[in-house]
Every structure is written in C-alpha cells, then in structure tokens.
C-alpha cells in the first residue's frame, strides 16, 4: 500500500498563521508522521466517534487532524485542520 499525503486549503492557511516556533514544531511533527506515524511523540490516535479521522500532537496544546481513507492500493492522508483543542474539536 502506498501512503499519499495532501492538505486542505484551510490547513495550509492555518499552518501559515502559526507563530514561528509552533510552525517549526508542526513541520517536524508532519515529517515524523510521514516517516513513522506510530512514533510515540505524535500520540497518533483515532478520534472517537469518527471512522476516518485521527489526530497527532504537535506539542502539548496544538493538534493536527488527519483524514485517512483508502482508495484501491493507496492510503490517502489529508492534513485537515491544525490548532489548539478548542479550534480543532469545536470549529466555528
């Protein structure tokens, strides 16, 4: 199975709005997720009550929500939203 990665426009916009330190931490977490999604520091887990959404931790307050779907021989990982707990779990 081939893992593919993409992001939503909303994710891209939110990522660009992060402060410099958090931006670097998020970029590091994304690279780590691509190379080793089971790395313990990511705390990768399924979001309860969903079928295709997972979260990873950037730091103690910032999360990235990822939609994971399978298409034929591909697993498509979409970086969906990034922000603190309130922003990602209770968006406006």
Shape: globular
Class based on secondary structure composition and strand pairing: alpha+beta
Under CATH, the topology is which?
A: YaeB-like fold
Distance between the termini: 36 Å
Enumerate the spans where pLDDT stays under 50 for 5 or more consecutive residues: none
Q: Helix count?
A: 3
- Oligomeric form: single chain
CATH class descriptor name: Alpha Beta
Q: Could you describe the largest sheet, including whether it forms a barrel?
A: 5 strands, mixed
Number of strands: 5
CATH homologous superfamily (4th level) name: RelE-like
Percent in helix = 25-40%
Describe this structure as you would to a colleague:
By secondary structure, the protein is of the alpha+beta class. It has one domain: RelE-like (YaeB-like fold, 2-Layer Sandwich). The protein has helices spanning 9-17, 20-35, 85-89; strands at 2-7, 45-46, 53-57, 62-71, 74-84. Strands 1-5-4-3-2 form a five-stranded mixed sheet. The protein starts with a strand and ends with a helix.
Which key features would you list for this structure?
92 residues; alpha+beta; YaeB-like fold; five-stranded mixed β-sheet; 33% helix
Please give a quick description of this structure:
With 92 residues, this protein is of the alpha+beta class. The protein is built from 3 helices and 5 strands.
Layout of strands and helices, then pairs:
Elements: E1 2-7, H1 9-17, H2 20-35, E2 45-46, E3 53-57, E4 62-71, E5 74-84, H3 85-89
Parallel strand pairs: 1-5
Antiparallel strand pairs: 2-3, 3-4, 4-5
